[in-house]
C-alpha cells in the first residue's frame, strides 16, 4: 500500500488503530505474533558443533594429530613387524589418551565460551533501542523490536525511527535518512499527502526505519515493521555483535605465532642433533631411537605452544564486560574493556553526570530587583524575599514568570503520596516550580481564562549549540516570540530591558545585569535570561529561529542551583590517584563551571585555567595543543568544540574517554577512544555511537569501569605470565634432557625424554589451564587504582614480563630436570623418574600460580580470596596425583606410583623456588619502599 498518498484517517482505519488511544494490549500482542518482531533478519548463529570444530583448527591440534598418527604407526609397526603386542597396545592407548585429553579440554573451553557468549548476548539485549508508544491510552517506553503496525509512536530529536511511519503530527520535525537516500541534509517532515509516484526521498509525510530525528518532534503511526520496512527490503543480514579482535588479542596472536616459529626451530635443532649423534655413535639409526626422538620432539612441540592463551583471553575479557555491566557500565565491544583500563583522560559533562540534575531556582533578577527564593525540592511552595529587605511586589515578576512557563515544555505533578515529581528538561522544571510558587501555571494560561487568549504557535527547542529556546505565541491577537537562554549569548541579541513596566534601552542596565549574573555564577548557579519580543503575524508563522532570536526585550534572569553529586568527589580523587585526568566540559558559564569544579576537586584553586568555547574558536590547533594537557575545565562549549579537544589530546597520545547526551555529541563520542553515553537521559543516537553506556548516568560508574578495565588487564597479564612460565619450564626441562644426558644414568638412557608428551599435554590442558581460567576471576589487586595507566601501545611482554617469565620458567625447568636426574641416579625406573619430574612441574606451577596473581609477590595477596582458584588448584593437585596412581593412566601417560614420602617431598620441595625468589623480591621491595618513603620524608622536610 502507498501510505504516503493516503489521508491519515484512511490509514488509521486501514490499520484498525486509534490516534487517541493507540492499540490495545491484546491487539499489539496479536500483531506481534502475526508480523513477528520488528527487527532485521539475523545471521544464523554458528551452531555449537561448528564452534567446536573450529577450535580444532589450532596449530596445537595439528601437532596432536601428528602425534596420534605417529603413535598409531608405531602400534602398527609393533603389531605387524616386530610382533611386540604389549608395546603395540601401549601405543594405541597413548593415541586414545591424547584424544581423551583433547576432548576434555575442548569440553571445558566450549562450556566457558558458551557462557561467555550468553553474557555478551545479555549485554547486547540491554542495548536494545526503545520508543515512546501509545498503548491502551498510555504513553509507554517499548523495546523497538516489539513495535507492530498500527502503533502510534512519538519521537523527538535524538531518537532513531524504528519501523516505517506515516506522520500524523509534526513540529519542526527534521529527519536524516541518508542511509536510504544518500542525502546527507536533514529533511523537513510534514503531514500533507503527496502524489502516488513520489520518490522515497521526497515522501515528506513518511519516516523510515533507521533514520535519525535531528530536530523537533512528531507523532506517527507505524505502517511497516521488520523486513517489510524500506530498510528491510534493501538491507542484507544484520551484523551481529562485533567480534573483532581487541588489541591485546591481536598482540597475543602475533606472540603465539612467534613462539611457534621459535618452537619449530628448537625442534628442528633437537631432531637434527639427536640424529647426528646417533649416526656418529652407532653408525646407523634404529627404529627404537626414532621412536624416542619423535616422542621428545612431540613433547617439545606440545610444551612450547601456549594453547590455552587465546581462548582464556577472550573469556577473561568477557568476564570483564560482565563485571562492568553488573556495575551499570555497559560496553559495546570487548576492546572497550581493554581501552578503559588504559584511559588517561576522562572528559565529562557537568550537568547530570557530575551534578544531580535536581535543579531549583534560588535567586532571580526581575524588574531591576534581586529576589531570593525559598522552598524545598519540587514542591511549589515558597516565598520570594527581596535582597534589600523591601517587600516583594508581584508586579516585578508577573510577566517574567509567565514567559518562563510559556517558553517551556516541562511539568510537575504530584504522585499518589502527594510528592511532586518532575517531568521533562530539568532546567525547565526549575522554572515551572518557580512560577508555581506564585500560582502561575502554563496549563491555566493556555486555558484562556478571563479575557486572555493565549495559543502556542511554534516551538524551537533548546539546543546546546544555540544555547537558547524560543516559543512563538499568539496572545489576545498580538504575536510574541519568547526566548530564554544563556545570558552571555542573549546579551548581544537584546535591545531593550523591562524596568518598571517600561522597555528602556538595554545599554542603560547592561552592566548591572552583567554584575548580578556574575554574582550568581560565582555562587555556582546556572544562569538563564528570559526575554520576549513582539512580532508580526508573518514572522510568527514563517521566520527562522535566527530571525526571531534578536531585538529581544530582557525581562529577567534566574540563578539555578544544581548540587554536585556527593559521591563524585571520591571518584574524582580515585581517578586522580590513578593518574587519570578528570576534565569538566559544560555549556554553562565559566564562573559556574569553575565554582562546581572546585567543589568536586577537579581543580584545586580559583586560579585554574578555564577555557571557553569562544576561546577555543579563536585558537589554532597548535595553540589548543599547548593547553589541553593542563586544562581541567571547559565552559560554554558546544559539541563541536568537544571534537577539537579530543583531537588535541589524542595528538598528545592520550587515551580519552568523553561523555555526551545530546544528538550533537555523537561525532565527539565516535572520535573519543571511549565514547560514553548516558543510559537514562541520553538520546538513542548517542547511545548508538558510544562504547560505554552508563545505565545510571553516574560519573562514579565511569570510575568503576576504569577500575574493572584495569583489573581485567592485570588478570590477563597474570595468567599470561603464568602460562608462559609453564611453557618455558617444560621446554627447558626437555631440552636439558636432550643436550645434557649423553649417556645412560641408571635406567634412563640418552633418548629418554624428561617428560612424556602426554605428561606435557596433561600439564598444559588440565593442571595448568584450569587455574589460569580462575585467574581471570580475580578481584582487583589493592593498588590497581594507584598505578599509572598502562601504555596502550606497549607490548604485553614489556615491563619485565619477559624477564620474569624467562627467569621463573628457567628456574622451574632446571628444577624439574634436576629432579629427573636425581631420580635416575637413585635407580628409580624410567616411569618413576619421569613421574617425579612431572609432579615437580605440576606442583611447581601450582605454587607459582599464587605468585603470578600479583604484580608484586605471593606474600602480598590473600591466597584464598579467589575461591575458583582454590578449587582449580585443589582439582589440579588431586587429579595429577591420581593419574600417577591409576593403572590406566600409568599405562598411557607413562606415570608410575610413588611412595607417600616421595609425594610429600615433591610437594614441599617444589615450593622452594617460588618461596625463595618471592621472599628475596619481597625483601628488596620492602627496602625500596622504605627508601622511597625516606626520600618522600626528605622531600617534605
Ligand atoms: P550543560 O549540559 O553543560 O549544562 P547546556 O548546553 O545544557 O550545558 O546549557 C548551556 C547553557 O544554556 C546554560 O548555562 C543555560 O544558560 C542555557 N540553557 C540550558 N538549558 C536551557 C533551557 N532549557 N532553556 C534555555 N536555556 C537553557
Ligand atoms: Mg544540558
TrEMBL record:
Query: Could you tell me where this protein is found in the cell?
Result: Cell membrane
Quote the InterPro entries the UniProt record gives: ATPase_P-typ_cation-transptr_C (IPR006068), ATPase_P-typ_cation-transptr_N (IPR004014), ATPase_P-typ_cyto_dom_N (IPR023299), ATPase_P-typ_P_site (IPR018303), ATPase_P-typ_TM_dom_sf (IPR023298), ATPase_P-typ_transduc_dom_A_sf (IPR008250), ATPase_P-type_domA (IPR059000), Cation_transp_ATPase_P-type (IPR050510)
Q: Which residues form the Cation-transporting P-type ATPase N-terminal domain?
A: 2-76
Q: Which Pfam families match?
A: Cation_ATPase, Cation_ATPase_C, Cation_ATPase_N, E1-E2_ATPase
GO CC term (a single one): plasma membrane
Q: What is its main location?
A: membrane
User: How does the entry describe its membrane topology?
Assistant: Multi-pass membrane protein
What keywords would UniProt list here? ATP-binding, Cell membrane, Membrane, Nucleotide-binding, Translocase, Transmembrane, Transmembrane helix
Parts of the chain that traverse the membrane = 60-80, 92-110, 259-276, 296-319, 805-825, 831-850, 871-889, 901-920
- Please list the GO terms describing molecular function: ATP binding; ATP hydrolysis activity; P-type sodium:potassium-exchanging transporter activity
A single GO BP term for this record reads:
intracellular sodium ion homeostasis
Q: Which PROSITE patterns match?
A: ATPASE_E1_E2 (PS00154)
Annotated family? Belongs to the cation transport ATPase (P-type) (TC 3.A.3) family. Type IIA subfamily.
Q: What is this protein called?
A: Cation-transporting ATPase, E1-E2 family protein
Q: Which organism is it from?
A: Lentilactobacillus otakiensis DSM 19908 = JCM 15040
